[in-house]
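Hey, can you fold this one?
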Amino acid sequence: MVAPAYASDTSGLDFQQFVEEFAGKKDFFVELASATLSVAGTALAVRSADEAFKASPEGKIQQALAKAMEPFEPSRPQDEVIQRPVMETLRQRIASWQQHATIIGGRYQSGKSVATEEALRGARGVVRFTIRSAEWTDRMCKHLGVDDEGLFKEVMRRAREKLKDFPDNLTKFPILLLEVPRTTTKGINLISSTAKDVATDKIGSAIHVIVSASSAAVALAFDAGGTERQEDIWVGDLTEEEAKEFLALHGHGNKWEDFVDACGFRIGNLAKACENLKKGMSLDNTKQEYQRLATVEVVRFMELQVHPKVTGREM
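Sure. Predicted structure:
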């Protein structure tokens, strides 16, 4: 199809001339319109096919897999995190993992989430999910973009295969990182059974389940089949030197003793005190607030459910 030549000035054409000119070029315009409609139709068909594939089980698996294979990005920038020995302990556990769940425990605000995330920084094959209800498995699948647990396990199986393309990755196994807020008191038994089921190497589909429990009560209640079927890693309070380093990072190195007196050595409490100070809240008021919250934590512990009955009181 060759475009016809146009006169640069057609203002002198009368109507008869215009009709004759157009008649001679009609075939060109017909071909042009046909080609335009053909391209538009093809584009629409491709887009429809692409949307249909993304909505299919295979499409959902591939999208979830691509997301899981992205390098893990912690919530805090690296220059805002102090390095602690427990982070290296976690890295070694992850790098050498072969079987059984890993349970990250510690008192509330001891820095479990930050330590776990820092240990996983840059690792591929990590799926992270925060458990907020007893029906968390369905919500986890929805969060990942797949329909059910069967597709979820297929995503993790393929992730293990893809990890073979990254020999320098921290681990050769996919990781399911389950974060359990202290407000979650139900569904702990399902977390335990899920960890036990997926952390065994069946047809090359083993998944390293890491449970980061915000409440020490949840960590103590977790049971993946006995101590021989889980690895417990405790994140303790900061040492004096770590507390000094952390507070110096936030511009309060010369007042570290005042902060420790008000908050103790739990890194989360110290971080919150730094934020409160910026908002005008004194350390004394922060100390009173922490004393109040301690009572709340005792109540949450007593309401903890591992099985259908309340077990926190018994513990």
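Strands lie at 101-105, 126-130, 175-180, 208-213, 230-234. Let me know if you want another pass with a different chain boundary.
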